[in-house]
Amino acid sequence: MRSDEVIYLWRSGLSKNKVAEIYKRRYNQHIKLIRAEVVNRHAGRLISSYEALAYVEKIIYREIMKNN
Asked: Mean pLDDT, to the nearest integer, of 30-59?
């Protein structure tokens, strides 16, 4: 999920926690898809809710500071 998608979801009325949950779900599904191949079975790692929230908060904070 790119930063513009995060900002779009946040501006549409979702809380930062809900956006982080959506980001975490998409990211982990993508990693699981990559790991489904035998060659890449050890590639990547799943992220926690805390890591997803940190990513989303950083993007939202940057957007708020840009507009001020």
From this structure: 94
Give the pLDDT confidence of 1-19 residue by residue, as tens digits: 899 999 999 999 999 999 9
How far apart (Å, rounded) are the C-alpha atoms in residues 23 and 29? 10
Spatial distance between the Cα atoms of 57 and 19, rounded to a whole number of angstroms: 10
- Is residue 56 within 8 A of residue 6, CB to CB? The reply is yes
Give the closest residue to 40 by CA, choosing from 52, 30, 27, 48: 30
Query: Which of 19, 29, 30 is closest to 52 using CA atoms?
Result: 19
Q: How far apart are CA 56 and CA 32, in angstroms?
A: 21
Angle in degrees, CA 50, 38, 30, rounded to 5: 35
Q: What is the CA radius of gyration of the chain?
A: 14
